[in-house]
Design goal:
188 residues; alpha+beta; 15% strand; rod-shaped
């Protein structure tokens, strides 16, 4: 029942007819099986796995930077303000119209070696008003009364107001400046 070049294969009650290709005839093309394991697919799969891992891995706990230590508002006299000049890692304070500002963030300007270093630890009101950074603008008698600034003209007072506003916006007020004989000086 099989013709020449044909055969019948019986396997598990199934018959499969096998035919041979006569010589000289073209062999039919077999279907190629496409594999998904191509190099580009493997690279894309690896990239996908890495991205998924980066998204799903546990995150390191976020640590917030520490803020500046709390500063207690206090009363200063010219002599108790003097050590706050930035030397020996001390904070830099200066006073403007009786308000004491912590200008430590601007230590490059107000600390040792800065252009305004004469004002560090001192009442800078007159020097700022007159736009002079000379030592002669500073109060000489630290035990005497505070400079009342009554001899300043309108332009100088405007300069001082401008500086005071700038300090208020940029720096913390850490205290007030009173004269040595003031009743509040006992708290200094």
């Amino acid at each position: 029942m099989s013709s020449p070049g044909n055969a019948i294969l019986h396997y598990n009650n199934t018959s499969i007819k096998l035919t041979s290709i006569p010589p000289g005839e073209a062999v039919p093309q077999t279907a190629e099986v496409m594999s998904i394991a191509t190099p580009i697919n493997l690279i894309l799969l690896s990239l996908f796995v890495v991205l998924v891992y980066l998204q799903l891995r546990p995150k390191a706990p976020v640590s917030l930077p520490k803020g500046p230590p709390p500063v207690v508002f206090r009363t200063f006299t010219p002599t108790t303000l003097l050590p706050f000049n930035g030397e020996n890692d001390a904070p830099v304070y200066l006073a403007v119209r009786g308000r004491v500002f912590d200008v430590t963030p601007g230590k490059n300007f107000y600390g040792p070696g800065g252009p305004y270093e004469n004002f560090a630890g001192r009442d800078a009101s007159r020097g700022l008003a007159c736009q002079s950074f000379d030592e002669e603008m500073l109060t000489k008698d630290l035990k005497g009364p505070l400079d009342d600034l009554k001899d300043l003209d309108n332009e100088q007072l405007e300069n001082l107001q401008s500086w005071e506003e700038r300090f208020s916006e940029k720096y913390l007020v850490v205290g007030k400046l009173v004269a040595e004989g003031d009743p509040e000086a006992k708290n200094a």
